[in-house]
Amino acid sequence: MISILRSLWGVFLHAFRRRVTHRYPDEPMPLPPRWRGRIVLTRDPDGGERCVACYLCAVACPVHCIALQATEDASGRRFPEWFRINFSRCIFCGYCEEACPTYAIQLTPDFEMSECERKNLVYEKEDLLIAGMGKVPGYHYYRVAGVAIEGKGKGEAENERPPVDVRGLLP
Amino acid sequence: MARVVIDGKSYEVDGRRNLLHACLSLKLDLPYFCWHPAMGSVGACRQCAVKQFKDDRDTAGRLVMACMTPAADGTRISIDDPEAKAFRASVIEWLMLNHPHDCPVCDEGGECHLQDMTVMTGHVVRRNRFPKRTYHNQDLGPFLTHEMNRCIQCYRCVRFYRDYAGGRDFDVFGAHDQVYFGRAEDGVLESEFSGNLVEVCPTGVFTDKTLARHYTRKWDLQWAPSICAHCGLGCNTSVAERGGMLRRVMNRVNPEVNGHFLCDRGRFGYERAQRVTEDPEKEKRTPEDSEKKGLSESSGSSGVKRFSEFSGSLCGLLIGIGSPRASMESNFALQTLVGKDHFYSGLSDLDASLVSLILDILRNGPARAASLQDVENADAVFILGEDVTNTAPRLALSLRQSVRQKALERIGKGGIPLWHDAAVREAMQDEHGPLFIATPYATRLDDVATAVWRAAPDDLARLGLAVAHEIDAEAPAVSGFRMPMNSMADALRDARRPIVVCGTSCGSVPLIQAAANVAWALRRQGRAADLCFTVPECNTMGAALLGGGRLGAAFEAEADTVIILENDLYGRAGAAQVDGFLGRVKHVVVLDHLRTRTTSKAHLVLPAATFAESSGTTVNNEGRAQRFFQVLPSREPVMASWRWISEMLVAAGRTGWASLDEVLAAMGDARIRAAAPPAAGQRIPRRPPRYSGRTAMAAHVSVHEAPPPPDPDSPLAFSMEGFSPEAPPPLTPFFWWPGWNSIQAAHKFADGPSGVRLIEPGQRGAFFREVPAPFTPRRGEWWVVPVHHIFGTEEQSAMAPAIVKRSVEPTLALRPEDASDLGVSTGGAVQCMLDERTYRFRVQLRPELPVGVAGLSLMGATKGVGLPCWMALRRA
Ligand code: SF4
Ligand code: SF4
Ligand code: SF4
Ligand code: SF4
Ligand code: FES
To answer: Where are chain B's structural domains?
Structure first.
């Protein structure tokens, strides 16, 4: 008898404790910026696509859910002709982000992407590409790479000497 | 054999090798750059340093370059020695000082020897903060891209291009740390073997420009072992696809055939097969006018239904024409369907007589058919009538090595190890030969010839016969012949392994007989003389072995229905004759993957599979049966020709075949069957272990991943499960080994030859005794010989975009004197009547042509002209 009353009392007291239930979705979840959620493709400081279609994210992906095709335009820049992530397979491990040499592919603090049909979880480049630089502002792969693109000739990248004059005889 | 101790363990190695080669053969990992299995060592890169010890009491040791140290008996070395390791790591660091930050956009990435070696030595952090050296690039034509910033100055490219392949328009320029590998100025690389730079260069300086158009990393490609379909030599290749698109061709080492190198036609001629496959509808393997006739093309079993509908009864009036560019299996299937008496071989009548003569010579005479490796090792060569660079390109590269053999023998005796490339070349200087070239017009090998002679094919044959007589008096004499190249017979007699090269390209029976006489005369003198005959297409030899009636007889034969297998008859006989035949036969059924003039006359076109879409066997010029395997998964309605024919057999109530092994069993030749293992046992994956994107590639179509397509025809699987490095040589889809992602991984694989030789020599010693009369020029007429072009003559590669860019406009070559008599100059035009048709040709002047002889480019429409022949030329 005593013990029953004690339990009732205890339950009653809990009515005045601080609430721990999060009222999601009425209240949004606070997530740290490094949360590994929905994947995006970012842009470089000039607004160009950062992804150079190197296939490293695709090969790093343990569930093989990234596929793309590289192409090149007249300016000499490489980019993906198409880029597809099958989120119905993705395990959000973040390996792609870690593999990416250009900071193009990034995981974001967004997990609200449930769908009733699996095929709606197949995202194409248009669905993945965002307007900004994401978590890594300022990085521009072509400014450090040695290849020439329109507007940046040979020897004009960061920390490069002008191209060698092969016919020069000076030591 | 020698015993060497490596890191305390004793091994048995080949004492004629250097230590690097020995270590690699033992499958030990030792980084290197400048050594190449076919080109030897120069010790330029300093990457292969190891510690060598005097004896077992020596603990200090000294650093040596493994590639420059002989694997002598009793040698003691250490690869794992900390000092050697540190040395190798610092060499990589130096090489990387100026290396650009390019890997993500570098086509070499993922198959880069420099990446592999960097990882292997453990150099991970860049310490250098100084600005990097840069270079301008050059436009090198449609085959290769150039990105000089990535160069590590290993000198492999110049050593291949100049020293090995004899190219002159590529070199190393500049001084000290600013050396430059390229041409004196932008321009197309002239060498027919330039594509090998893709594999020879350990970095991404030279990469495949055709691959860049549909770039895919090596790990993402699905590979299959294949046989080049673009000439009669049958070089071994690895072909690769992704997403149903053929993407690239790489070399597959077969030490007895192509070794480490391919020609550019074989490497870059694949894109046509790719385009057909890519979009069968657009490319229309269906001729438009078949629709007009109300007999449209058909797919799958409906095609066979249509076929049996209008062919009525399948017996009696059904004939079949085979093809020298279709597999043995497809030719055999057709032969089975129509019966031996109604099967015609599909070679032009001239080619058929030439090839059957060649077969007779190789089977019954005492001289062997030489492999490319035999040619490379020959110490004297006599070329009769062949412009090998254009008819059998890879053979030209082997011949360039053969001219070094004599000198190599001398140098070897002097104690210089033959892998010591720099020392050997220093000792050799310009010494070369003997190589005698007797052809109607100049060839690209003339620069290494001991002597060249230009004459009409009949006179070339007389030369050959006269040489044979000089070697052995038993051979028939040639009266009234003055020997133009003296000492030639002596040079051939002095050799131990002389080879006579001849072929079908001059279209001359006496020439082939003369070549045989020379080789047989040498055999009678106790020399191990071999014969190397070139043939025009990938399975010409196979088609000849299978037999069948002459094409001319087919045109006369009574027939209601003709089935033409992968063959454009307009390239084999005169247009009037073919028109007459195709017009007369009620039902013309063509199985092909190319759209030709013949398919446009067909009533029913059945889409046949290309070499990339089917498996089968071809027989090369040496009589070596080799299997090629399907790389593109099958796609309706395209099927291998033998499958179409098998369905026809079934429709006719006979038994067909379900797999390639069943066709091979039906063929009943155990040697052809043994060319590659049957489809049994553990499957070999076509995909590398890191193949990516499996669950996303086709997700836009369906999120449910399809199972890998079955492959009843081979032990290979369209999958990544399994371990391919254990596959036997004929089944090795690609070269990859843990830590060795580049093609340099080849040394980790079994290096035995593959393919089975079907032709072995006989005993007959009797010489050919007919001597042709000297060639007599005619007034107003020319004896027109075909001029072959590496880019453009072979029909399966001729339409590949990169090859098209290198093709020349077809011309008629004339002596300048003849041209001025006709009143034309270079670029002018001449015309002639043939087969009641007027042809117009652009004129090219070639002063070396013999009097009375002209040369006509063999491509497209000129194939059916029936060269060589007399032509009356007029100014157009
Ligand atoms: S790793 Fe980065 S740059 Fe490379 S393909 Fe993926 S997203 Fe693009
Ligand atoms: S050559 Fe090799 S290491 Fe250099 S950028 Fe290309 S892939 Fe990277
Ligand atoms: S271009 Fe390539 S092969 Fe030539 S020296 Fe440079 S790295 Fe070596
Ligand atoms: S030589 Fe002939 S078989 Fe060899 S790669 Fe060239 S075209 Fe192909
Ligand atoms: S491989 Fe030995 S020094 Fe280059």
So the answer is: 2-96, 293-345+548-668, 375-536, 781-875
The DSSP result for A5-21, as a single string, is: HHHHHHHHHHTTSPP--
* Cβ atoms within 10 Å of B287's Cβ, excluding its own: 23
Strand residue runs (E) in B767-821: 781-787, 811-814
Of B98, B99, B102, B105, which to mutate for an interface test with A (greatest number of A Cβ within 10 Å)? B105
Task: Spell out, as residue ranges, where chain B has pLDDT lower than 50.
Answer: 277-300, 313, 315
* Degrees to nearest 5, angle at CA A79 with A75 and A85: 165
Give tens-digit pLDDT for B124-154.
889 999 999 999 999 999 999 999 999 999 9
Q: Chain B neighbours among A 73-112 (CB < 8 Å)? A: 78, 84-86, 88-89, 101-102
CA A60 to chain centre: 14
Residue from B873, B798, B807, B867 nearest B839 by CA: B873
ipTM: 0.91
Q: Which of B102, B174, B699 lies nearest to residue A164, judging by beta carbons?
A: B174
Pocket test for ligand 5, best of B18, B41, B155 (most atoms within 8 A of CB): B41
- With a cut of 50, which residues of chain A have pLDDT below it? none
| Architecture of the domain spanning B781-875 | Beta Barrel (2.40)
User: What pLDDT, in 10s, does the model give residues B146-188?
Assistant: 999 999 999 999 999 999 999 999 999 998 889 999 999 999 9
CATH number assigned to the domain covering B2-96: 3.10.20.740
Taking domain B375-536, whether its CATH number is 3.40.228.10 is answered by yes
Task: Answer whether B263 contacts ligand 4 (Cβ < 6 A).
Answer: yes
Q: Where are the alpha helices (DSSP H) in B365-446?
A: 372-376, 388-391, 393-402, 405-413, 421-428
* pTM: predicted TM-score of the whole model, two decimal places: 0.94
Q: Would you call A65 and B695 a contact, using CB atoms and an 8 Å cutoff? A: yes
B172 contacts chain A (CB < 8 A):
no
For a ligand 4 pocket test, name from B254, B371, B372, B394 the mutation site with the most ligand atoms within 8 angstroms of its C-beta: B394
Is the CB of residue A128 less than 8 Å away from at least one CB of chain B? no
Rounded-to-integer distance, Cα B152 and Cα B205, Å? 9
**Which ligand is nearest to the Cα of residue A67, counting in written order?**
1
Residue A51 in contact with residue A36, Cβ under 8 Å? no
pLDDT at B274: 67
CATH number of B293-345+548-668: 3.40.1190.20, 2.30.29.30, 3.40.50.740, 3.30.420.360?
Answer: 3.40.50.740
Cα B842 from Cα B102, distance rounded (Å): 47
Whether B245 and chain A come into contact, CB under 8 Å, resolves to no
Cα separation, B226 vs B256, whole angstroms: 16
- What phi, psi does B562 have (nearest 5°)? -125, 135
